[in-house]
C-alpha cells in the first residue's frame, strides 16, 4: 500500500496564483535576486503574507523552482505598499515580462520582515532559497495536483 507520508512534510495544500509578469522596480536584480512580479487582484485573498517555497509554471508548461514572497515588501514600502506576489526563480536566467506565469505556493517558510539593510534582506533570501531547494527535493513538480480550469489572473486559488 502506498505510504501517505511518502510526499514528505508537505501538508497537501497549495495556493496557486496566475497572471502576466509585470515589470518590478528592478531592485531585485541589484540584490542578486530578480523576481517575476504578479499583481494580486483580490487584496484580501485567501493567502496570508509571507515567504513560500514553491514552483513557477511557465507558459510552455515547464516548471522552475521558486522562492516566493507574498506581501507588501515592508523593508522598502512600510505598511502602505500594495500586496503582490514576487517569485524568484532558482537557477533561471531570462526575460519573463509579459509571460503568464502560474505560481504554486507549497510550504510557508516565514513571515514578511522589515530588514534594516539590503544586506540583511540578502541573507534572508539566501536562507529562503536554501529552504526552497530542500522542499523541492521532497515535492517535485511531477507531484503537483491537477489545477483544472486555471483561476482568473491575479486571484488566489486554494487546492487541497
Ligand atoms: C523569497 C523572497 C523573500 C522576500 N522577503 C521579503 C521580506 O521579508 N521583507 C521585504 O521587505 N521584502 C521581501 N522580499 C521582497 C524584496 O524586497 C523585493 O523582491 C525586492 O525589493 C525587489 O523588488 P522588485 O522586484 O520590485 O525589484 C522578498 C522577496 C523574495 C523573492
From TrEMBL:
Keywords: ATP-binding, Flavoprotein, FMN, Kinase, Nucleotide-binding, Transferase. It is an enzyme of class 2 (transferase). It comes from the Bacteria. It catalyses: riboflavin + ATP = FMN + ADP + H(+). GO terms for molecular function: ATP binding; riboflavin kinase activity. Residues 137-160 are annotated as: Disordered. Pfam families: Flavokinase. The keyword Flavoprotein applies. GO terms for biological process: FMN biosynthetic process; riboflavin biosynthetic process. Its EC number is 2.7.1.26. InterPro entries: Riboflavin_kinase (IPR023468), Riboflavin_kinase_bac/euk (IPR015865), Riboflavin_kinase_dom_sf (IPR023465). Residues 10-137 form the Riboflavin kinase domain. PANTHER family: RIBOFLAVIN KINASE, RIBOFLAVIN KINASE/FMN ADENYLYLTRANSFERASE. This is riboflavin kinase. It comes from Amycolatopsis carbonis.
